[in-house]
Design a protein that fits this description.
heterodimer, A: about 475 residues, alpha/beta, Amidase signature (AS) enzymes, two-stranded antiparallel ribbon, B: about 60 residues, mainly alpha
């Protein structure tokens, strides 16, 4: 029964605990068992919080026995990217340097909120160093490996989050997304990912990368789990200065409202160039299922991606300037070289990138007067093999590492909410489609995602060897 | 900028910022600096009105 429990979605887990079919302890033990068996290969976890998880499970089982109410995520195992604070553990952010930092004195806001909803934390997850990564590779802790083919990348930087969820080592996970770091591993690992509107979810208690671009969000194997976790995390947090004061807008309540007369279009132009056939095939399948025939251009999307790249380089370098001075040799060399180069970016060019952001945002908001949802590929290709250095985009060879996020960067650049949806392909490897909505309209993106889930076009495929 | 120009900027800039630079790091830093500058100029070459506010404090 153990493995069966680990593959259940959160709704089924909570229902099973509620009706007495199984206990929260059994669910957690099944999950811990899978971590022990499979994480030697997948390398998703950097810490497993088994004692804490079992104590929480016992508390939930005791509450049920006493007839107390259970939260919407009661007994559901989750894990968090290791840039998110877990009390008692150093917040590594994928680095060797942060091992020397004191352990976090308390949990991050989102961990607190998820546990208040009954979810059970089972550990901290591997990631690319300081989140400056799209591959899931890490020189200090080893690469996280894709459950669909362990020789392939999970994508990054939330690589362990994608791998753990796809491999049923957790029912859902938290990741961060500055330029695509939730959506890329969701695409490569074949799971659902939500990057909410910039400022929607609190980042308090997470290790920053690029403050003006950083988001946190969930990854899950079902859309329902994604929405329940998202709802549990919403709400203002005075500890994050960019966290919105808007009231929570629960998504579960509207998830099944259907797509009605929503105007759905496919992103053309830039979002076709550089996309491999499988990426376009996946977007085409989604568009056909939704009856979407219109194509729209996000104006100057290539410049938007370039501006996001520039801001990331400069702000990321400023974030790590002291560490570059004092411990440069302790960085992953590929990250260190990028950070040093970013530190040397002329300020006038960085300000121009911020100025362009204002212009691009206005153009895209205008576009959202004409359409409600835009579909685009999440990644240009399926998961590359670990160690691959280059990629052919539009017939030209480019370095792989910075170019995996060409389709995600223009979207997060202006903080739009996006659901990344997994499309299984005949090759056996999944690929993701982005469902993009106007700011604060996660509800619309999730409704469209639900329609696609019901159509059968999108689903999180179970890896054959797991 | 050619390689020599970039190397001069990198060597002076890292001294300015008090970042130690080992000789063997120069090739990688130069590669990323060239990419950064190419993309930054792509953005900067786009004509924008003077009055447009930079989005330093971004609000979605």
């Amino acid at each position: 029964m153990g493995d069966d429990l680990a593959w259940l979605d959160g709704t089924a887990i909570t229902a099973g605990i509620f009706d007495g079919s199984f206990s929260a302890r059994e669910v957690v033990e099944a999950t811990l068992g899978r971590i022990e068996r499979y994480d030697t290969t997948l390398n998703s976890f950097t810490a497993v919080t088994a004692e804490r998880a079992l104590a929480r499970a016992d508390a939930i089982d005791a509450a049920r026995a006493q007839g107390a109410g259970l939260g919407p995520l009661a007994g559901v195992p989750f894990a968090v990217k290791n840039l998110i604070d877990i009390a008692g553990l150093p917040t590594l952010a994928g680095s060797k340097i942060n091992r020397e930092r004191p352990a976090a004195s308390r949990d991050a806001t989102l961990v607190v909120r998820l546990e208040e909803a009954g979810a059970i934390l089972v550990g901290a997850l591997n990631m690319g160093e300081y989140a400056y990564d799209f591959t899931g590779e890490n020189i200090h802790y080893g690469p996280s490996r894709n459950p669909h083919d362990p020789a392939r990348m999970t994508g990054g930087s939330s690589g362990g989050s994608g791998g753990a969820v796809a491999g049923a080592l957790a029912t859902f996970a938290l990741g961060s997304d500055t330029n695509g770091s939730i959506r890329v591993p969701a695409s490569f690992c074949g799971v659902f990912g939500l990057k909410p509107t910039f400022g929607r979810l609190s980042r308090a208690g997470s290790f920053p990368f690029v403050s003006s671009l950083d988001h946190l969000g969930p990854l899950a194997r079902s859309l329902g789990d994604l929405a329940v976790a998202y709802d549990a995390m919403q709400g203002h947090d005075p500890e994050d200065p960019v966290c919105t004061a808007r009231p929570a807008e629960p998504a579960i309540a509207v998830l099944d409202e259907g797509i009605g007369d929503l105007r759905i279009a496919v992103a053309g132009g830039y979002f076709h160039q550089g996309a491999f056939a499988e990426a376009l095939q996946a977007v085409g399948q989604a568009a056909r299922a939704l009856g979407a025939t219109r194509e729209v251009d996000l104006p100057e999307a290539a410049r938007a991606r370039a501006a996001a790249y520039v801001i990331t380089a400069a702000e990321g370098a400023a974030m790590h300037l002291d560490r570059l001075r004092d411990a440069a040799e302790s960085f992953d060399p590929v990250v260190r070289d990028r950070l040093i180069a970013g530190a040397l970016m002329p300020a006038a060019l960085v300000v121009r990138a911020h100025k362009f952001r204002r212009w691009f945002q206005a153009q895209v908001l205008e576009l959202f007067q004409q359409v409600d949802v835009i579909l685009a590929p999440a990644t240009p290709c399926v998961a590359p093999v670990i160690g691959q250095q280059t990629i052919m985009l539009d017939g030209v060879e480019h370095p792989l590492r910075p170019n995996i996020g060409i389709f995600t960067q223009p979207i997060s650049f202006i903080g739009l909410p996006v659901v990344a949806l997994p499309v299984p392909l005949p090759s056996g490897l999944p690929i993701g489609v982005q469902v993009i909505a106007a700011p604060w309209r996660e509800d619309i993106a999730l409704r469209v995602a639900r329609a696609l889930e019901l159509s059968g076009v999108v689903r999180s495929p179970q890896p054959p060897e797991l | 900028m050619d390689e020599a120009d970039l190397d001069a900027v990198i060597e002076a800039g890292t001294r300015l910022l008090r970042i130690p630079l080992r000789p063997e790091w120069l090739t990688g830093v130069r590669l990323h600096m060239a990419t950064n500058l190419r993309l930054a100029h792509l953005v900067a070459d786009f004509d924008l009105p003077d009055h447009l506010d930079p989005a330093h404090v971004f609000r979605a």
